[in-house]
Design a protein that fits this description.
The chain has 296 residues and is mainly beta. It has helices spanning 3-20, 43-55, 149-156, and strands at 32-33, 59-72, 77-91, 95-101, 108-114, 118-123, 128-133, 166-176, 185-198, 205-214, 220-226, 232-244, 247-257, 262-273, 293-295. The longest helix is centred in the first third of the chain and has 18 residues, at 3-20.
């Protein structure tokens, strides 16, 4: 048999074996299901909807449970902090207060307020009082000191298109498990809505953040915020949407800070939106006779 004929015979034999099932193995994989509906909208509609969701909330008064996880592969260990209870107050354009109480005792563990540009924070159990700018210029080795008020503000309220920004949309899909107790997975088409800032004297567009929306209901399930160098700074996921008054809002929000190896999980137990909040609710008085640490 010539070499050419031999090669043809081997090829034919391999094809025959594959068609008859010889040398093939089959294994089970998790079957996914499509959502009951898939919505299709234009980029203009996505932007208008995002703007409307942001504009719908003027103030927020939330009762929350918060747990924290620090550490990871860089440190070789993970530390989980027992959950705190507390309140988050928000008033546009920049007022925010985060008040947390220690577990098992209703005493203040942390109290932080900001007016949108600077913040004050009290940590009574450690007798620490801190002030600083909302803009982090010099990162600290202490991950919690890098957690400025803007991280909470930007994670709670997803902003729309700002003046001077550009926006784009791409399509993707995700696979998720609606109920962890059930082996049922949904493969859902998604929209990835990205906001960009032009770089001066350059053709470059810098990505500021990307909002991921499920096309079953067009609600955000994730937001990625990038720093000035284009690295992922904050990643927030949104789960378990509920109706609070006239507003549909996630009752579970997880904030991840990859560079700091820090993760916060906020579970909202009660939420009131658009009620009047007074100036005194955003005041934090620091005693005159204590040392105040100033963070850059």
């Amino acid at each position: 048999m010539t070499t050419k004929k031999l090669g043809f015979a081997v090829t034919a034999g391999v094809l025959l074996f594959s068609l008859t099932g010889c040398y093939q193995t089959t294994r089970s994989v998790q079957k996914t299901h499509p959502p009951s509906q898939v919505l299709t909208v234009s980029l203009d509609q996505l932007v208008k909807q995002t703007d409307a969701r942001y504009d719908a909330i003027k103030t927020m008064n939330a009762s929350v449970d918060i747990s924290a996880t620090t550490g990871g592969s860089k440190e070789g260990q993970i530390t989980e902090t027992t959950g705190f209870t507390g309140y988050i107050l928000l008033r546009k354009p920049g007022d925010l207060r985060v008040l947390l109480f220690a577990p098992f005792a209703h005493v203040r563990a942390l109290d932080m307020v900001t007016d949108g540009s600077t913040f004050k924070m009290a940590i009574p159990p450690r007798n620490r009082f801190i002030t600083g700018s909302n803009v982090l210029t010099t990162p600290s080795k202490n991950a919690l000191e890098n957690l400025r008020p803007g991280v909470f503000y930007d994670s709670l309220l997803i902003q729309g298109l700002q003046k001077g920004q550009f926006v784009s949309v791409t399509a993707d899909d995700r696979t998720y498990q609606p109920d962890p107790a059930k082996k049922y997975f949904v493969q859902e088409p998604t929209y990835e809505l990205s906001f960009h800032q032009p770089v001066e004297n350059s053709v470059e567009l810098k990505t500021l953040r990307t909002v991921h929306l499920g096309r079953a209901n067009l609600l955000p399930f994730q937001q990625d915020i990038y720093d000035a160098d284009g690295q992922l700074d904050t990643q927030t996921t949104y789960e378990n949407y509920q109706k609070f008054g006239d507003v549909e809002f996630p009752s579970k929000i997880t904030i991840r800070r990859p560079k700091d190896q820090l993760s916060l999980t906020l579970t909202i137990t009660k939420l009131t939106v658009n009620q009047a909040l007074g100036d005194d609710q955003f005041e934090l008085k620091i005693p005159d006779n204590v040392k105040v640490e100033k963070l850059p």
